[in-house]
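Handout, section 3.2

Students often ask what a structure token actually looks like in practice. Rather than define it abstractly, here is a full record for ATP-dependent 6-phosphofructokinase. The first block is the sequence as you would receive it.
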Amino acid sequence: KKKIAVMTSGGDSQGMSGAVRAVVRQTIASGCIAYAVYEGYEGLVQGGDLIKRMQWEDVRGWLSEGGTLIGTARCMAFMERPGRLTAANNMVEKGIDALIICGGDGSLTGADKFRAEWPSLIDELVTTGKRTKEEVKQFKHLNIVGLVGSIDNDLSGTDATIGCYSSLQRICQAIDYIDATALSHQRAFVIEVMGRHCGWLALMAGVSCGADFVFLPENPPSENWEEEMCSIISKHRKLGKRKTIVIVAEGAHDRQLTHISPDMVKDLLSNRLHLDTRVTTLGHVQRGGTACAYDRMLATLQGVEAVKAVLEATPETPSPVICIVENKIVRKNLMEAVKMTKEVAAQIAAKDFAAAMAGRDAEFAE
Ligand code: ADP
């Protein structure tokens, strides 16, 4: 019976547990044996109890859970070949040669590297006497399939990542709470939301909450942004709006690209417009709570598709990543999606914002 392992890696997001549930159950339903690797690549390197056989009932109730119930970690050892060699040995020991990873672009890059290196890792296990030729006979290829778990919606090639809509929902709820008090006192709030390289959360929160102004890493403010923002906000106030909401994506100041910090915006609103202004950093609330309906659906459909992709893979098939494009679950080339994502991040760093915006929407061959 084929053994398929699932793991979550990198930053957590709502819906990751739902994805694990879908993979485990689809694996069992397909007549295969399911494993979960706990604590991300750390579990793969440490092996033992961190690579656990999973039964149908082990994932009961996981669909609605936030975060990841099998844990996630950042693992330095896996960045180096000796760590990956130990990981390969642990997989051979358990008889696993297929791995479904739910994570961000870093985790998916590591996975594809592992797959590319796999034949040489297996050879090394034999030449160093850790495994016999007989033991590794069936481990010629490693099958890798990616699922994208991220609150930032920052992977090129897919319309939504698992977690982004739950996080957006959380931001909207928080801003609704703030709205109530802002309205009462006619205050202005500058709200910092997550998203280092990608302003999707900030932009969609702006649209969904009717914010007055939004700062994104992809779209730097103009030279005269101060006048622009103040005149828009004054206009809104003159129209009778009793509150002001300005959203700043973490990446708009964190990466020193646009140098817009929430405090700068606050000072401007206080000093120039004489608004009673407060700064609220939403922080990890955005990663918390249960998965919204969309993320439960996405995690389930994509988890099922990931298992199908494993079972249909040949040694020649490049590693796929499971995406959603115009409401259809599709497989795309994992490394192309990662490459495009990195190109967009580089374009933002180089302040080539037009190219970055085009890259975000870009389609590419499967
Ligand atoms: P994310 O998956 O959210 O982008 P990271 O970039 O932190 O998060 O990656 C998570 C983990 O994936 C890292 O701690 C490391 O163990 C592994 N990883 C990331 N990049 C690589 C790489 N180039 N080679 C091997 N492993 C990697």
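Discussion prompt for tutorial groups: Residues 9-11, 41, 74-75, 78-79, 103-107, 109-110, 113 surround adenosine-5'-diphosphate (CB under 6 Å). How would you have guessed this from the sequence alone?
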